[in-house]
Amino acid sequence: MARLNLLEETRYEKLPVSVYGSKQQASVAVAARIAALIRDKQARGEKAVLGLATGVTPIAIYAELVRLHKEDGLSFKDVITFNLDEYYPMKPDAAQSYVTFMYEHLFGLVDIDKANVHIPDGTVDKDEVVAFCLNYERQIEELGGLDLQLLGIGRTGHIGFNEPGSAPNSGTRLVTLDDLTRNDASRDFGGKANVPTKAITMGIGTIFKAREIILMAWSKKKAPIIKKAVEGEMSGEVPATYLQLSDHVEFVLDEDAASELTRFDTPWLVKDCSWDDNLLKKKAVIWLADTISKPILKLTEEDYNNHGMAQLAVEQGPVYNINIDIFNQIQHTITGWPGGKPNADDSQRPERALPAKKRSVIFSPHPDDDVISMGGTFIRLVDQGHDVHVAYQTSGNTAVWDDDVLRYMEFAIDFTNSIGEDAGHLAKLYEEMRAFFPQKQPNQIDTREIRNVKGFIRKTEAISGARYAGLTDDHIHFMALPFYETGKTKKNTVGEEDILLTIELLQKIKPQQIFAAGDFADPNGTHLVCFNIIIAALKRLKGTEAWVDDCWLWMYRGAWHEFPTYEIEMAVPLSPQEVIRKRNAIFKHQSQKDRPVFPGDDAREFWVRAEDRTRDTAQRYDRLGLAEY
Fold first, then answer.
1. Is residue 365 reached through a cis peptide bond, with omega within 30 degrees of 0 on the bond before it?
2. Two domains, one topology: 8-263 and 359-399+446-624
3. Cβ atoms of 41 and 49 closer than 8 Å
4. How many CB atoms lie within 10 A of CB 421?
5. What share of the chain is helix, strand, coil (3-state, %, to 5)?
6. What is the mean pLDDT of each run of 10 residues along the chain (629 residues)?
7. I need a surface site. Which of 55, 398, 400, 582 has the fewest CB within 10 A?
C-alpha cells in the first residue's frame, strides 16, 4: 500500500528514507540494527534469519559486524543466512563468486556455523535449477521467513538480480542479466565479455516476505535511480519501485545517493529556504530558466510564483534585480584567460591578474585525463606564457589491450635486430607473453614485464600529448603513485608514500595554480583517490609552506561528466582552431582510441565525449541568455 506522508519536506517520497552524512556512518548504523536483532533473538533462544546482499555497498556493514564480533563479543552461532543471488554458471571458488565474497568479507571472519550459510549454487545443472530454486524458497519458509533482508540497488533499479520486467510476486529463479548490469560488473571480470549472462536470484515476492527490509545506496552514481525508486511511479521498468508496496521497508542512504531527491535537489519546492546561500539562489534561478525554457533576464515574478520560488521573490526581489545579479555571476565565469589576464581589473574575473605569469601544475590521474578533460585550457595556459607542468599520477597500465603489448614487443624486436643488436632476450619474453595471454583468466594479474610494457605505452602517449600542448620534457612528470601499482583493477588503499611523493613534487614547483580532476565517475574510482591524495598533501604543506596560501586549486571535468552550470566558476571558450588542437592532443593517446579497455557507460570515443560535453556547456550558457560560443 502507498505510504501516507504528512511531512511537507518529504511529500514526494513514497517510502521511508534515512540519510546519513557518509556511507561509513550509515553502515555503522545498519550494522548496529543487525547486531541488536541477533542479540534480541539470542536472548529469546531463537535464531536470527538474515537475507544478505553482496557488491560494494554492504562491505562496510560487514566490516563493522566483524568488528563487533571481535571486540564486543557479537556471536553468529545462532544466525542463519540466505544470500540474495549468485551468477550462473559460477564456481564457488572463483574470485567473482558471491561465495568467495561472503567468506572474504564476513563468514570467514566470524563464528557462524557454515551449515547455516545458504548461497544460490552457481554450479547446479541447468535441468535442476528450477528444483533448486523451489527448495531455496522452502528452506526460508520452514524457518518462518527472513527477519531482515539487506538490499543494494543496481542502476537498472534491480534488487537482487530482479531486472526490469520482473513481477512483484516473483520467486527465486534463473534470470537473464540486463546489459547495464553486466557492464557495471565488467571491472570484476576483466571485461564485459567475461561477465555471465544469467544469475540465480531471490524474487521480489521472496524479498517482500521479510519482516524488515533495508535498502542501502551510496554515491552520486546511485542518485538518479534512487530518485526513481523513492519518488517515481511504480513500474516494472524500475523493480525497486515495488518496495513502495511494503510497510516494512526503509531506504538508508548517504548524502550523495540522496542528492537528487526533491528535498535536497530542489528544496524550494517543498520548504522555505535560506536564500542567503548564494549557490542555492544561483541553482534555483538557473533551474527556473531551464524548466520554463527562458533566458534568465526574461524571467518574471509570475514565473517565480508559479514554480515554487515565491519566497525568493518576496524576500530578495524584485525579481528583475535577482535576474541581473545571477546573470552577471554566470557571465563573470567566462574567461579566455585561465591563468588570469595581465594588467586587467580582476575583481569580476575567476582568476587573479597577478602574478601575470603563474606556475601551474595539472594533475592527471591517468595519462590522458589532462588533454581529454581540460586540453583546451591546458593549451591556452601554455600559449599565454605560464610556467605549466603536468603530473601523471598513475601509470594507467591496467587500461591497455593485451594485443597492443605484442605489437610493441614486435616493434622492439625488429628495431633491435635492425641496429645489429641481439634481440634474443626480447624474443624470449615475447614468446612467454604470447603463451600467457591465451591462458589468462579474467582479472588475472599481468606479469611484471607485461605491466611494464603497458605502462611504457601510456607513458610515451602522454609525453607526445603534453609536447603537442607545448610543454618541454622537464615539465612532464610521471609519479607512478604506489597505490595504483598492483596489477589489478582493485587498488591498494592510499599510503604514506603516495602523499609524500605528491608533497615532494609540489615543493619543487611551488605552484600558484593547481588543476585537479574533479570527475569522480571514472569506472575504477582512481580520480577520487588521486584527488584525495592532493588534498592530503596540501593540508600538510599549508602549515609549513607560505606559498600554499597563494595557491588556488581548480577542479576540472570532462572525461566522464560535466559540472552543472551553477557549480561552474571558470568557463574557458575555445576557438575552432583550439578545438582541433585539443582533439589532436587526445589523438596522441592511441591505446585509448576507438575502443578503450574501460569505456564506462559511454560508447563514444573520448575525443567525441569531450567535444560534445563542452559544446553542451556552451549551449547551456546560450540558453540562459549569455553569449553564444
1. no
2. yes
3. no
4. 10
5. 50, 10, 40
6. 64 97 97 98 97 96 98 98 97 95 98 98 97 98 97 95 95 94 85 91 96 96 96 96 96 97 97 92 98 98 97 96 98 97 95 97 97 98 98 95 97 98 97 96 90 98 98 98 81 88 98 96 87 97 95 94 95 96 97 87 90 95 95
7. 55
Report the C-alpha gap between 462 and 238 in whole angstroms.
Answer: 42
Are residues 404 and 456 in contact, defined by beta-carbon separation less than 8 angstroms?
no
Beta strand pairing call for 513-517 and 552-556: parallel
Q: Which amino acid is at 598?
A: F
Indicate if the alpha-carbon torsion angle 331, 337, 340, 346 is positive or negative. negative
Q: Taking Cα atoms as reference points, which of 348, 289, 274, 290 lies closest to residue 319?
A: 289
Write the burial class of residue 363 (CB in 10 Å: 0-12 exposed, 13-18 middle, 19+ buried).
buried
Look up the pTM and report it. Answer: 0.91
Q: What angle do CA 574, 577, 580 make, to 5 degrees?
A: 95
**Structure-block grid coordinates of residue 349:** 574575473
One DSSP character per residue, 121-166 reads -TTS-GGGHHHHHHHHHHHHHHTTS-SEEEE---TT--BTTB-TT-
- Take residue 95 and report the three cell numbers written for it: 574470485
For domain 359-399+446-624, the CATH superfamily is LmbE-like (3.40.50.10320)
How big is the chain, counted in residues?
Answer: 629
What is the identity of the amino acid at 223? A
Tell me what pLDDT residue 2 has. Answer: 46
Distance CA 373, CA 27 (A): 34
Instruction: Determine contact, residues 270/263, Cβ cutoff 8 Å.
Output: yes
Cα–Cα distance measured from residue 5 to residue 16, given in angstroms and rounded to the nearest whole number: 9
Closest CA to 459 of 397, 401, 370: 397
Secondary structure class of 384 (helix, strand, coil): coil
Instruction: Write down the domain spans for the chain.
Output: 8-263, 272-316, 359-399+446-624
d(CA 266, CA 555): 24
What is the C-alpha separation between 578 and 380, in angstroms, rounded?
Answer: 8
User: 476 forms bridges with which residues in the sheet?
Assistant: 390
* Integer Cα distance of 549 and 278 in angstroms: 25
**Domain 8-263, what fold?**
Rossmann fold (3.40.50)
CB 526 within 8 Å of CB 488: no
Task: Say what the pLDDT of residue 354 is.
Answer: 96
Beta strands in 290-376 (DSSP E): 359-364
Catalytic annotation, residues: 163
SS3 (DSSP) at 303: helix
- DSSP conformational letter for 107: G
**Side by side, which strands form the sheet with 476-478?**
476-478, 387-392, 359-364, 513-517, 552-556
* Cα–Cα distance, 48 to 36 (Å, whole number): 10
Which string of b and e fits 470-479 if b means at least 16 CB within 10 Å?
ebeeebbbbb
Are residues 586 and 370 in contact, defined by beta-carbon separation less than 8 angstroms?
no
